[in-house]
Design a protein that fits this description.
By secondary structure, the chain is α/β, with parallel strands linked by helices. The protein has a domain of 249 residues: Rossmann fold, CATH 3.40.50. 44% of the residues lie in helices and 16% in strands. The protein has 13 helices and 13 strands. Strand 5, helix 6 and strand 6 form a beta-alpha-beta unit. Helix 2 packs parallel to helix 4 and helix 4 runs parallel beside helix 6. It starts with a strand and ends with a strand. The structure holds nicotinamide-adenine-dinucleotide and 2'deoxy-thymidine-5'-diphospho-alpha-D-glucose (DAU).
């Protein structure tokens, strides 16, 4: 079996569902269930003995040691993190604790566990660290996409904490020989995405007739990847990735935020027309995010060359599936819109002046 951390979050949840469907191999899922963790995502596994859920903190060394000793996993796939850039600006402390101290704690527990393994079990063990393209900083319009050799230039408390965790993982490989692989992925989207992030926020706000807040001029570029493609990339790297290597994962799908929001509105106009007119009437420019990275783009040639991985979805197919999923799952959305969610939305958007509407 494998141990997954953060498997009740957006990508971790999709990964657990995918992993069990694709491989049938059992998963122990360690997740603290912060505001971003949601067991509803894993409801279809309720009576499936291949999924063992443990609510707990990756910073709890005793708990991690106990889980490793009890379940003897052949790999750890580490997703658990504080993941939202805006939240890291409002309060960076939890990002340092979970992303840096939590990764350190896991690495130490993994080192002790792996050190005591023998023979084939020792040779086969893997620690897969799931990271982000944000560690590389921001690209100008003319610059080449991020390759694995790009300098680390994190600009937000979130990306700095992820960069620190990547460095720890690298050091545990070089110093202790811990068998690690790291993936640095671009922006994911798809089912079960918490509606604080751009795409699900726009879908949920549009359906509620609320403003669609565009930071700055809406021309910041992200490289979007359908979440199931990220899951298949992780499976490929976990299985055949070279030890100590990093692999950049991306969708070859660079798009400015405004284009993304117009695409979402057009799909909603088609699938759930609003008598008041196109959802794009709700587009509202608001004060920019401090330190907002202008452009991310991933050069995903290494993972294709070495492991034969390429995304299966285009943006057009993936975004349609995503909008359809949100329309078909209003109860999942309603369940995550707790009081804490509403408090976050007012904390993040109250201080931003609306600049203009109707883009
Ligand atoms: P998410 O915020 O949706 O989920 C994070 C999960 O981790 C939640 O279930 C949460 O309860 C859990 N968690 C948080 N702190 C914990 C702790 N101390 N102990 C145990 N569990 C804890 O995040 P996501 O978007 O699914 O991202 C998952 C990973 O992928 C993160 O490491 C993130 O940096 C990375 N990543 C995300 C994206 C993206 O576009 N979302 C892209 C590239 C990389
Ligand atoms: O690149 C990978 C990263 O992608 C991951 O490491 C992060 O965990 C993940 O959250 C994501 O970070 P971003 O900051 O790119 O994602 P977010 O959805 O918050 O924002 C996407 C873009 O949309 C960004 O340029 C900011 C903009 N935006 C976002 C929100 C929430 C808006 O214009 N309005 C908004 O209300």
């Amino acid at each position: 079996m494998i141990l997954v951390t953060g498997g009740a979050g957006f990508i971790g949840g999709n990964f657990v569902l995918d992993w069990i469907a694709e491989t049938g191999e059992p998963v122990v899922n360690l997740d603290k269930l912060t505001y971003a963790g949601n067991l509803e995502t894993l409801k279809s596994l309720d009576s499936d003995t291949r999924h063992v859920f443990v609510q707990g903190d990756i910073c709890d060394r005793e708990l991690v040691d106990r889980l490793l000793a009890e379940h003897r996993p052949r790999a750890i796939v580490h997703f658990a993190a504080e993941s939202h850039v805006d939240r890291s600006i409002h309060g960076p402390g939890e990002f340092m604790r979970t992303n840096v101290e939590g990764t350190f704690t896991l690495l130490e527990a993994a080192r002790a566990y792996w050190g005591a393994l023998e023979g084939e079990a020792k040779a086969a063990f893997r620690f897969h660290h799931v990271s982000t393209d944000e560690v590389y900083g921001s690209l100008a319009a003319h610059e080449a996409p991020f390759a694995e050799t790009h300098a680390y230039e994190p600009n937000s408390p979130y990306s700095a904490s992820k960069a620190a965790s990547d460095h720890l993982v690298r050091a545990w490989f070089h110093t202790y020989g811990l068998p690690v692989v790291t993936t640095n992925c671009s922006n994911n989207y798809g089912p079960y995405h918490f509606p604080e992030k751009l795409i699900p926020l726009m879908i949920v706000n549009a359906l509620a007739g609320k403003p669609l807040p565009i930071y700055g001029d809406g021309q910041n570029v992200r490289d979007w990847l359908y979440v199931k493609d990220h899951c298949s990339a992780i499976r490929a790297v976990l299985q055949n990735g070279r030890l100590g290597e990093t692999y950049n994962i991306g969708g070859w799908n660079e798009k400015p935020n405004l284009d993304i929001v117009h695409t979402v509105c057009a799909l909603l106009d088609e699938l759930k027309p609003d008598a008041a007119g196109s959802y794009s009437r709700l587009i509202t420019y608001v004060t920019d995010r401090p330190g907002h990275d202008r452009r991310y783009a991933i050069d995903a040639r290494k993972v294709e060359r070495e492991l034969g991985w390429r995304p299966a979805e285009t943006f057009e197919t993936g975004i349609r599936k995503t909008v359809e999923w949100y329309l078909a799952n209003p109860e999942w959305v309603a369940n995550v819109q707790s009081g804490a969610y509403r408090e976050w939305v007012s904390a993040n958007y109250a201080g931003r002046d609306a600049k203009d509407s109707h883009a």
